[in-house]
Amino acid sequence: MTKPEEIEVNVRQLDEEQATSANGTESNPVTPLFDVVRRMILAGFGAFALTRDEAEQFLNRLVERGEIAQKDAQQLIDETLAKFRQASVPPTSQVESNVNNLSHQVETGLEQMLNRMNIPSKRDIDELSAKIAQLAARVEELRRAGDTPAAKPQVKGEK
């Protein structure tokens, strides 16, 4: 059985791991969003653990008073846990699909916002850099061709 204190320790460990991984060189703009979702899920687990403990305490009091049998109390706890697990754990493919969809929406929204602010994207900058490199190479090519005597045009009046 998971106690609220254990959940708090696990949350602290995850926070420390994230702080450690945040010092890495990889940058992901969606990471803060995943952090919020992770914290919401952990909060849900914490609330569930508290609710489960309170439900068990309540059922134990009923057993002590003789209002319900120990076997029935344990069966009720097991059935409730099974129903909770079925309802609360979506299929992995659905979670991945939702994450991918959310990631795409965030990316599209950011791109639209940058376009409205007239800020070029990395792709725009890369395309312009490639064009500048091509033009610089062409200028250098023309300069070399202009240095040869046969390529110099004759100006009227010059001999």
TrEMBL record:
Compositional bias (Polar residues): 19-30
Organism in which the protein naturally occurs: Candidatus Viridilinea mediisalina
Stored PANTHER family: SLR0058 PROTEIN
Region described as Disordered: 1-30
Entry protein name: Poly(Hydroxyalkanoate) granule-associated protein
Pfam families the record matches: Phasin (PF05597)
UniProt superkingdom: Bacteria
